[in-house]
């Protein structure tokens, strides 16, 4: 009897659409485990503002890559790719199907398609760039990337400090443009991916985001951010929901204004997520209110096709 093809069910979609709840239902149905590909949920200190799974949700199904490192740690998408593929190799010994869930498109692609190979980076260069960002902000770094690699400047999210510093450290360490290391070739994986997308019309997505932000504030997000104020320079904390409330704690903004900015910036983030995920033409999209049975039937149909191909 031939062994079944290992399957990765990747659940994607905009923030606040219900990916976590769906992943747990599917993991229970398939009696399997969940890998998180949400780059903000990796951090132990960031619970409320990242909408990380609750203790009850974590207890319901085994989860991986949830709160496993500190915001003080350096962890990038390359390390995640390596760790996730290693873990999947272990999980496929006991499971035919594994669930992956998360809204960080680059991290999802790192697992399903692989990353480009980059040269070793001089850690001293990284330290200097991080120090410049901490002291002077993004603008000088953005200008430097535009000078060194205009192609990368126009392609990457230059308002994301981690992506910007990553591109610069590669340029400066290698003496070559960051963009010269980018290819379109996918790595061969030992599993097949079935990508499930969850979405809704824009008004519903935005309403769900607004309500989630209000709930986060009610649940004590400001206190969580206050505890992290001494670490605000860490790249992990330059993220929506945290950077706005740092401004409140430093008496620059009112709480009401910060909440409105969190909602606005989260809506923009959701729009970017959908743009990214819609690039994958193989994604099977469902409305957020679709019943679980319909999604399971679609997955099983695809699994059967893969097993007999």
UniProtKB/TrEMBL annotation:
Chain positions recorded as ATP binding sites: 13-20
Binding site for substrate: 15-20
Pfam family, one: IPPT
Gene Ontology molecular function terms on file: ATP binding; tRNA dimethylallyltransferase activity
Record keyword Iron present: no
Example GO biological process: tRNA modification
UniProt-listed Gene3D superfamilies: 1.10.20.140, P-loop containing nucleotide triphosphate hydrolases
Interaction with substrate tRNA, annotated site positions: 104, 126
Residue ranges of the region described as Interaction with substrate tRNA: 38-41, 162-166
UniProt-listed Enzyme Commission number(s): 2.5.1.75
Cofactor: Mg(2+)
Enzyme class: transferase
Catalysed conversion reaction: adenosine(37) in tRNA + dimethylallyl diphosphate = N(6)-dimethylallyladenosine(37) in tRNA + diphosphate
Keyword entries, A-Z: ATP-binding, Magnesium, Nucleotide-binding, Transferase, tRNA processing
SUPFAM superfamilies in the record: P-loop containing nucleoside triphosphate hydrolases
Function: Catalyzes the transfer of a dimethylallyl group onto the adenine at position 37 in tRNAs that read codons beginning with uridine, leading to the formation of N6-(dimethylallyl)adenosine (i(6)A).
HAMAP family, alphabetized: IPP_trans
Family to which this protein belongs: Belongs to the IPP transferase family.
Subunit structure: Monomer.
Protein name: tRNA dimethylallyltransferase
Organism: Psychroserpens burtonensis
Gene this chain is encoded by: miaA
């Amino acid at each position: 009897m031939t062994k079944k093809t290992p399957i990765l069910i990747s659940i994607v979609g905009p923030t606040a659409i219900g990916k976590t709840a769906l992943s747990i239902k599917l993991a229970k149905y398939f009696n399997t485990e969940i890998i998180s590909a949400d780059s903000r949920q990796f951090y132990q200190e960031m619970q409320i503002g990242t909408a990380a799974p609750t203790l009850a949700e974590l207890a319901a199904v085994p989860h991986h890559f949830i709160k496993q490192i500190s915001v003080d740690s350096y962890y990038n998408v390359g390390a995640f790719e390596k760790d996730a593929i290693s873990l999947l190799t272990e999980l496929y010994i006991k499971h035919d199907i594994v669930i992956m869930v998360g809204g960080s498109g680059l991290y999802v692609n790192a697992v399903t398609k692989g990353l480009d190979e980059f040269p070793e980076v001089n850690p001293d260069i990284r330290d200097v760039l991080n120090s410049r960002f901490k002291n002077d902000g993004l603008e000088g770094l953005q200008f430097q990337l535009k000078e060194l690699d205009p192609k990368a400047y126009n392609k990457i999210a230059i308002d994301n400090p981690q992506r910007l510093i990553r591109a610069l450290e590669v340029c400066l360490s290698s003496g070559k443009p960051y963009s010269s290391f980018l290819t379109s070739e996918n790595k061969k994986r030992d599993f097949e991916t079935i990508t499930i997308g969850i979405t809704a019309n824009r008004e519903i997505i935005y309403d769900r985001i607004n309500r989630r932000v209000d709930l986060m504030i009610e649940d004590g997000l400001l206190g969580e951010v206050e505890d992290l104020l001494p670490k605000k320079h860490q790249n992990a904390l330059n993220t929506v929901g945290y950077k706005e409330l740092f401004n409140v704690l430093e008496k620059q903004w009112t709480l009401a204004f910060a909440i409105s900015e969190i909602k606005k910036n989260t809506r923009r983030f959701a729009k970017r997520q959908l743009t990214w995920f819609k690039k994958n033409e193989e994604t099977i999209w469902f409305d957020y209110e679709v019943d679980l049975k319909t999604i399971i039937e679609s997955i099983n149909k695809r699994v059967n096709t893969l097993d007999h191909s």
